[in-house]
Amino acid sequence: MSAIFNFQSLLTVILLLICTCAYIRALAPSLLDKNKTGFLGIFWKCARIGERKSPYVAVCCIIMAFTILFSE
User: Fold this and answer.
1) Contacts of 71 (CB under 8 A, 6+ apart)
2) Where are the membrane-spanning stretches (predicted)?
């Protein structure tokens, strides 16, 4: 099933996107900082969410890992 129609998969994809964008911005800030608007601005916004809400994102990643590991 596609990640769009399965809520747990959609949340997993969003969390991975946020974590990946924050990691890329930490390594090479110029890649995401030059595209703050438009379609590529989504990645900059995800990086900002990952930086500013990092404790909450980390808790969500841990919870999602446990639900994936121990779900039927």
Assistant:
1) 8
2) 54-71
Interatomic CA distance for residues 46 and 25, integer angstroms: 10
Residue type, position 52, single letter: R
Nearest-angstrom CA–CA distance, 3 and 27: 28
pTM: 0.80
Query: How far is the C-alpha of 27 from the C-alpha of 50, rounded, in Å?
Result: 14
- The Cα 29–Cα 5 span in angstroms is 33
Q: What is the pLDDT of residues 4-50, one digit of tens each?
A: 678 888 888 889 999 999 999 889 888 888 888 888 889 999 999 88
